[in-house]
Amino acid sequence: MDRRNFLSMGLGSLLAYSLMPRWRAEAAEVALPRAAADAIIVLWMNGGPSHLDTWDPKPGTSVGGPTKAINTKIPGVQISANLPRLAEHSNHLAILRGITSREGNHDRARHLVHTGYAPTPTVAHPSLGAWVSEELGPASDLPAFVSIGGPSVSAGVLGVQYNPFVLKEAGKPPRDIKLPDKIDTDRFARRRSALDKLEAAFATETSDPKVTGRRAVYDHAVKLMNAPGLHAFTLEEEPMSVRQAYGDSDFGRGCLLARRLIENGVRVVEVALDGWDTHQNNFERTADLCGKLDPAFSALLDDLSARKRLDRTMVICMGEFGRSPKINGNDGRDHHPGAWSAVMAGGGIRGGVVAGQTDAEGDKVLGNPIQVQDLMATFALQLGLDRDHQIVTPLGRPLSIVDAPGKVIRDILVT
Amino acid sequence: MIVVLAVATFLACRTTESSRADAQSIAGSQSTMKFTATAGTEALAAKLDGMLARLQSGANLKPTPIIDDATFLRRVTLDLTGTLPEPDAIRAFLADKSLDKRAKAVDALLASPAYAQHWASYWGDLLLPLRAQKGILDRGAFHRWLLHRFNENAGYNQWVFDLVSATGQNSIGGEDALPRNTGDIDDAREAEAGVNGAVNWLLQYREAPQDLAGNTSKIFLGVQIQCAQCHDHKTEKWKQTDFRQFAAAFARTQDKPMDVKGEMKGIKRIEVRDVNHLVRMGPKAPPEWRDIAMSRPTALDGTDLSGSGDPRRALASWIVSDKNPWFATELVNRYWGAMTGRGFVDPVDDLRPSNPTMAPEAQDALAQDFASHGYDLKRLLRTICLTNAYQRSVAGEQPKGDDFWARGRLRPLSAEQLLNSIVSATHLEPVLEERAGKQGKSVNLVKFQLQRDVTFLFDVDEAGGDDDTFTGTVPQALMLLNGWLVNRAVKPVPGATLEEALAQPDPAARVDLLYLRTLSRLPTPSEKNAWQSFLRGDVVADASNRVGRRGNRDAYEDLFWALLNSSEFQFNH
To answer: Architecture of A3-10+34-172+234-412 per CATH?
Structure first.
């Protein structure tokens, strides 16, 4: 048995044990799939992508603009012609077209979609990645939660130890991970021996757990410096053909890195693609961004699938809101939280389905809308997180990963 | 921690004297420099200690000893000015035989420009946190506004009134006002443009005016009225109506863009003013805002604020009035918490009845003195510094349960304190110049980037509150272990600390200097012995050619590195 199989087996049994209560609660409601994922990749479309020019096109209408639609593998379902490769991969995709929210400001909406809660001054809600870090922990010496190309959202009241490990861009090792110039391992060991002397004396003098806590953080840092999986951060090991498939963009490299990190024990990777705030020149800019998203997302699905990792890795592509059907005077679209789209794949999500629909103009959701807390409920279930697990905020209020009314989106789960 | 506020602090440290003179001449037109009445602070400190002693003996706690002089000077310098004492100041303090030297040291620190820089940063972090939106917020202008208040020692009631009722323009606008450039803006230029930096605090809530009400109540009154924003509070007396009536005081405050959209690069200019009609009431107004705006503006004790026609000004008056039961109580709690590591009430901004104070008598006595002496923050800090409770050692067994300040608390340095301390310990200036030259940047830009990086990594106390755990992060540790800041700063660059240390006549004097610069104390005899072999061993290990000397320098560098990475350096203790 190689190391990775060993790890994943250990993890599986751990999950089965810790999640018994939650499963029982859900089982009482209705029998649910158990294709629990052990990792999640969030493709974060920063700025709020136009649903009308990506997953929910309205060709031939006054609101559709010049964006064309193409067929997918799902009978009767079309997506934007900006996403030809993803149309080919639609057998893997669950397209959520009926999402609605009330936050139309970037910061507030970003908080909502990352945490499942609208921002309030009373509590700093933890992001999804932080909850996963807290409940599942890392599966190796690498951090549990890595954010590439964007700040993501912090762990809030869970505590900074669950914050995302932030990489400005993919392809370079993490900051300060290597010893500085002219400091070799012997010299570093000597320095640490001096530090250990100081720390031991101070810990004895104060007998304060904060000192031992700080030493533990330093030990973690040194462990990461020497982690066997550290090579995952560099992309040169990948064949050129693979790197090319993801596209020559920071986002493409971020997606490839996400796959490498997941394979090396990271639980949550968020990869940001910025620029979707298309108040001006929406159609050209959206097409350009889709040109980065389309190959990267497709290659990620192929890669995960070929490596038999897709059914345990959930991929979600979303931004903070949609964009207005009305095309403004600058050929742009403005913020539109009332109706928008996201796409999920892998990790026990059924491919080739569409959930929810918007009206003829993509303005309002028809039928039962999907709320952000429903997305969180679905992530939590598939990742095997206990939605009844509560923490108490500094002001004494209970808080859990899914806001109480959140309902699992059952139609998109593998049965 | 606010990047830009702290940057302004950092950038300003070289020109403090001149900027202070400017500050006073401008402030002089509005108010005069306030002198602190120190009479009675010693007696009050003793009274507080008596009250706490009763609580401690009631809980069978034996207080830890009072800290020695060097530890005191380090603790109080970090707390009052956000940086470390200089070696000369430490030696002079240790040699001083006068009985009131601790009080004198406190007074000197409170009178220093660094006091205003540090507390302006503290309040800046609290009032304009980093997550607040960019583009319209001029953090530099806000910091300068605060800095003037602390330089002139404005009464807390005065500046809070000015802040809550602030009107005017946010910024000179444009790219000059961008964070990285704000080091060069002078006060005259802002005064001429009619900038009132305080309005940036109001502007951060432009998208969510209800949060302005919630944070006003939380920060200045310790009342978490925003808990009643969505529904009546379950366990406290606050109803949703209370929240809405409180928030209604802000419903006539308008922010009016001064620049044509898209024309102004950098910071956009906005004027904040109050009008005689309700604002944000258009067809897109959320129902919640309508409910707030239509409520009658009312203070938390039921005082009607609608009479004067300017409810925000009426609210500001009510907040700072002597009749307000929360204002002084909250502030002394906040400052007691900032100085000792735990407020009388914890968290410091949550004064609800079901979260009672641990020392009601002491909190009341302090609040009364504060309110009856012009809300003088320096007087309050002086009193706190003179208590035994402030001067207790962190050493000894951890008690189970509440300790009633029978013991000092280890407190991790804030991002601002940490960077200031590294700068102070290493004499960073030559290193920064070297780096600026290599990268072809200005020294100011290098400082800005450094400040931003440190702040980004170390501004992480969102969770707060937890007493026993250290919640540092791996990226922080990596930066301190391997980052350029510490690793360049420990090198023998001309003008920097290691050169100064190596120039000392003998090994003992070198180690003394490194200890004074980092831990603000002299090494104990056993420490001196221990390092002797560490430093000597290095020479032998690297012996060949001139490496004998070089290896020796490396060993000092390694010791210096270890001192900077040590917990004793990175906590206030």
So the answer is: 3-Layer(aba) Sandwich (3.40)
